[in-house]
Amino acid sequence: MAAGPQGPRLLVLGLLLCVLGLSVSQGRKLLLVPLDGSHWLSMHGVIRQLHQRGHDLVVLASVASVYITEGAFYTLKRYPAPFKREDLEASFISLGRAVFENQPFLQRVVKTYKKVKKDSALLLSICSHLLHNKELMTSLAEGNFDAVLTDPFLPCGPIVAQYLALPAVFSNALPCSLDFQGTQCPNPLSYVPRLLSFNTDGMTFLQRVENTLVALLENFLCSAVYSPYASLASEVLQKDVTVQDLLSSASIWLLRSDFVKNYPRPIMPNIVFIGGINCASQNPLSREFEAYINASGEHGIVVFSLGSMVSEIPEKKAMQIADALGTIPQTVLWRYTGPRPSNLAKNTILVKWLPQNDLLGHPMTRAFITHSGSHGIYEGICNGVPMVMMPLFADQMDNAKRMETRGAGVTLNVLEMTSEDLANALKTVISDKSYKENIMRLSSLHKDRPVEPLDLAVFWVEFVMRHKGAKHLRPAAHDLNWYQYHSLDVIGFLLAVVLGVVFIVCKCCVFGYRKCFGKKERAKKSHKSKVQ
Amino acid sequence: MAAGPQGPRLLVLGLLLCVLGLSVSQGRKLLLVPLDGSHWLSMHGVIRQLHQRGHDLVVLASVASVYITEGAFYTLKRYPAPFKREDLEASFISLGRAVFENQPFLQRVVKTYKKVKKDSALLLSICSHLLHNKELMTSLAEGNFDAVLTDPFLPCGPIVAQYLALPAVFSNALPCSLDFQGTQCPNPLSYVPRLLSFNTDGMTFLQRVENTLVALLENFLCSAVYSPYASLASEVLQKDVTVQDLLSSASIWLLRSDFVKNYPRPIMPNIVFIGGINCASQNPLSREFEAYINASGEHGIVVFSLGSMVSEIPEKKAMQIADALGTIPQTVLWRYTGPRPSNLAKNTILVKWLPQNDLLGHPMTRAFITHSGSHGIYEGICNGVPMVMMPLFADQMDNAKRMETRGAGVTLNVLEMTSEDLANALKTVISDKSYKENIMRLSSLHKDRPVEPLDLAVFWVEFVMRHKGAKHLRPAAHDLNWYQYHSLDVIGFLLAVVLGVVFIVCKCCVFGYRKCFGKKERAKKSHKSKVQ
């Protein structure tokens, strides 16, 4: 058949589409159920890439969402929430404030527990509102989605995926080793440090005891947050559902980790490590930041940010920090939205926002003051910048511990540190060459990989859409209960058999002995009695 | 500095080298310590690729080697052996013959044990000869190698690597779960079937008991083969070395497996799956084979090979097979070097060698009769060809079981099968469409991967050369003994503490009770006695 006069034009258009990677025929439909806050921000790279590859993305978010807003790469589907956006904002702000409250330990624990319970109830109520929104759920069921991409940190997405009978990709780790429970991944207590234990993988006997106790405790702590989701799921799905059922439903887990930041440990085939995914987007600096760097001279700059969730700190602490920053010759770019500390030195520039990864990638950047959130740590590693770490909450203490043990940074207790401590830490990581060498070594290991983490994440989301899940990666361990998994029934049975055999053999020996020697003994006795 | 008149020419040459990927400056030196036989043949793809990427490869082989010969991609370094090439050849031939001897079970076990012991002694003696060859070992020590790539199936290479203090990449799995012991990889008996147990990952209680017993037994069986290497290593390295020490020395393990052939299970970060690596080289068919296919008409062809190690079978069995092959309408291409069976039908063509992967890739290929070695299975999967499997030894029975449970083939017992069994099996896999559908589904899952297995293997070998190992992937479990690893000391300590606390609390209660009520009781008693 002749191509007709439009043939060459269509051919060129086809080639153009191929070159752009916009294979329209492969476009599939993905439902995103993200978690508000920094977790949502960290999904942007994957979302953009999936959109560019021709997929149709629908993002579910409540009207109270703070960070999840309209975007060019997806359709935002809002649903009503049982409270206002301001309530959620207040919750985020109070989270940031709480970490700077220097209270006695027990008071702190009680307050944290109350806050976690209050916030969880708030977020659970949004989830309940979503799942009971018949109209929305029906429209989603008719949406012909191929898969769900969700953050299981609060397992609302997994319930939505099960309700819609869609395969799910989970895009984050969970506390209390729930992610490893969900994947049936062995988690040896002897060398895998539990989060918040602040141990490394080389533990003394007492540290291993502590690690075991933390593991026992965390089950109780997480149960308070996660078990209400199991009840909600049971009600919505009209069958008995456990937290384990919800978490084991993932086809693929995308974890923001690797074995440069974390310690090597057992993994499962459906766990994909995408640590460092946020380093992918590196852009040229704006004129403003370029000018700051140029003005910093030979000493270069220090980048300072406590993450997207904490941009204000108490005035006294801010002044203490400002004092320390004034003692170093570098220019400090500090992301800070609070009132300007009165003692701020000339070398310190306050900014409402900073292009963290782009600044860290500049050769004049000498150090990075960070709250050691997973993203910041990876941006430090990717760009090979030594760190001064001020962990605030969640996994940040453990992240800091990992970097410190590798000689790539110094950790400070933000509540207890003095101005001098911070100044000394900064001078140490900048002047002691070993910090730069160590972070550069980590950087070269981290970046030496067969596939970029962003490509890996996109590949596996597409894989799940293409194959309607990844059943071939689901271990049969999910079909066993705990004593079967640990072979306790088999061990019991084999022990019973061995003991049974030993018992029968002993009985036979005794019987045989009596048969053989019993007569003689009786004969002897009767002989004796006759003699007497 | 000016470039001088030769500048442009050098520039062009440099660009040319870059385009060809022959970055001379990146060329490193790799020492290969392979195992003779089919294991060596399976390394060819990686070797060729490493050579093309500008690395300098030196292959160590004894003068008695059968399969390891001079090659264009490497320098062969021969060393004397304590026996002749003919002895090794005889050993290979007898291995092929032994599998067709239909003897009573016990006689078979004793014979196999004797053969394994004799062959291991033979191969151990080559290793000992190599390690005691002072001149050769000195020249290797002076060879400035960056790493060792070795097949640890018989752990001579690991000893060489330790002697030369070089990082090692292990290129094969091991029997008796020694590979998982070597990597400290959890290996739950409850759903990870042991080799030679012929179980799947979904086991009944009795199958799990069997799996546990096989695991207990295999330790004893493998100890006979592997412990002499520990003694040899201890002598050569002049320190106490265990088999575990030798196997845990690998930086990276390249395993010819994936989760399409094998069942999902825990893995470790330094295990890289390269199953299907042999499918990479697909070439056009020669005129001879193209002619066979063209002559086969609409029915197409069946490819039949029992692997590189078994090319002859007893006459009676060959005639039985020939009989069955004559009953199908397809043309059968049979790799067979033995005498032509007198009853060979017209549709069956005997060939001394066949381009297995290329033939399986032809759309007219209807079925594949294979001994279900790992390579054959992967070529069947890659090309989506249903299989009739006649496992002979080693992991072949388990490979066949895996394919059979996935509905991609039929397994036959080569000793017990009748001519009719084979004919029926062939007709089934060709006419029952489910076999084709299942193998095509497996094929699409297997081939849908972010990196090709050959590229992955090359990447990790180069990674180890670049970074002088992969220490960041070595789990801290290697530094624990068995009871520490399983936290038995911690559990014992915590139990002791709990029991101690319970004991003290009980004692206190008893003491308190006596203090409070003892007097009253005594008073009561004395009152009673007075009354009496």
TrEMBL record, chains A, B:
Keywords in alphabetical order: Endoplasmic reticulum, Glycoprotein, Glycosyltransferase, Membrane, Signal, Transferase, Transmembrane, Transmembrane helix
Enzyme class: transferase
Protein's name according to its UniProt entry: UDP-glucuronosyltransferase
Pfam families found in the cross-reference section: UDPGT
Highest taxon in the source lineage: Eukaryota
Membrane-crossing segments per the record: 490-513
Keyword check for Glycoprotein: yes
Membrane-topology annotation of the record: Single-pass membrane protein
Family annotation (PROSITE patterns): UDPGT
Signal sequence, start to end: 1-27
InterPro entries in the record: UDP-glycosyltransferase (IPR050271), UDP_glucos_trans (IPR002213), UDP_glycos_trans_CS (IPR035595)
An annotated Gene Ontology molecular function: glucuronosyltransferase activity
GO cellular component: endoplasmic reticulum membrane
Entry's localization field: Endoplasmic reticulum membrane; Membrane
E.C. number: 2.4.1.17
Catalysed reactions listed for this entry: glucuronate acceptor + UDP-alpha-D-glucuronate = acceptor beta-D-glucuronoside + UDP + H(+)
UniProt source species: Pteropus vampyrus (Large flying fox)
Protein family per UniProt: Belongs to the UDP-glycosyltransferase family.
The keyword Repeat is annotated on this UniProt entry: no
